[in-house]
Specification:
The chain is an alpha/beta fold and about 240 residues long. It has one domain: Rossmann fold, CATH 3.40.50. Helices cover about 35% and strands about 10% of the residues. The chain contains seven helices and six strands; from the N terminus they run αβαβαβαααβββα. A six-stranded mixed β-sheet has the order 3-2-1-4-6-5, sandwiched between helices. Helix 1 packs across helix 2 and helix 2 packs across helix 7. The two termini are about 25 Å apart. Its EC number is 1.8.4.10. One of its GO terms (molecular function) is phosphoadenylyl-sulfate reductase (thioredoxin) activity. InterPro entries: APS_reductase, PAPS/APS_Rdtase, PAPS_reduct_dom, Rossmann-like_a/b/a_fold.
Length: about 240
């Protein structure tokens, strides 16, 4: 089995990407055969997440989907999760919360930590909770696409994740923004209504604004900070 520990010795599979899902369904089928219940999907319930959930449901209807519930998400994001639960009742959606409540975080690190130390806030409310989720789990799935940003342009279907000492599976690497929306419209999938209001990338409410640059889908994230990632995808 391909694991973090056997990465150097195990052969990596290859997948065609000239089909309808650009390899995504093939990658997911392989991943769930390979890891069975020892793999989770960490989902933000953005538009890429909606596509992946639909694809995963075709391969493993009772898959575990983990949402990092920071306590700072938009109301519309929570509403989207409820719509997904209704459409895919067999999926096991886990709302993973940080060990510190927002009040406890404020007492230890100051009010509105995301304003003066956003990296620390992301560490406490996203990175550490995901590390807890992945403890004892061999692999996890992410909705990264190469087109999203320069920092994601070299992502492979299957990646060695040094940060979490895991295998990170990225089925959508060859999908474009247009591909994502075409799929959502074709299959009439529920999605976060904020996408229709200028938010191509949706994270925590205090750190997410409408995109400043229509050519940069993540330009509305952490505006005013030299920060482009929450830390989940940086080794």
């Amino acid at each position: 089995m391909l694991t973090y520990q056997t990465w150097e010795t195990e052969e990596k599979p290859s997948f065609p990407h000239d089909n309808e899902t650009k390899g995504a369904l093939d990658v997911l089928a392989w991943a769930y055969r390979q890891y069975e219940n020892n793999i989770v999907y960490a989902c933000s319930f953005g538009i890429e997440g909606i596509v992946l959930i639909d694809l995963i449901s075709q391969v493993k209807p009772d898959a575990e989907i983990v949402f990092l519930d920071t306590g700072l998400h938009f109301r519309e994001t929570y509403e989207t999760i409820e719509k997904v639960k209704e459409k895919y009742p067999s999926l096991r959606i886990v709302m993973k919360q940080p060990s510190l409540s927002l009040d406890e975080q404020a007492k230890q690190f100051g009010d509105e930590l995301w304003k003066h130390h956003p990296n620390k806030c992301c560490e406490l409310r996203k990175v550490i909770p995901l590390r807890e989720v992945l403890t004892g789990v061999t692999a996890w799935i992410s909705g990264l696409r190469r087109e999203q940003s320069p920092t994601r342009s070299h992502v492979q279907y299957i990646n060695k994740d040094d940060k979490f000492q895991s295998i990170k599976i990225c089925p959508l690497i060859h999908w474009t923004w247009k591909d994502v929306w075409n799929y959502v419209y074709k299959y009439e999938l529920p999605y976060n209504v904020l996408h229709d209001q200028g938010y191509p990338s949706i994270g925590c409410e205090p750190c997410t604004a409408p995109a400043l640059d229509p050519n940069d889908l993540r330009s509305g994230r952490w505006v005013g900070h030299k920060k482009t990632e929450c830390g989940l995808h940086i080794s």
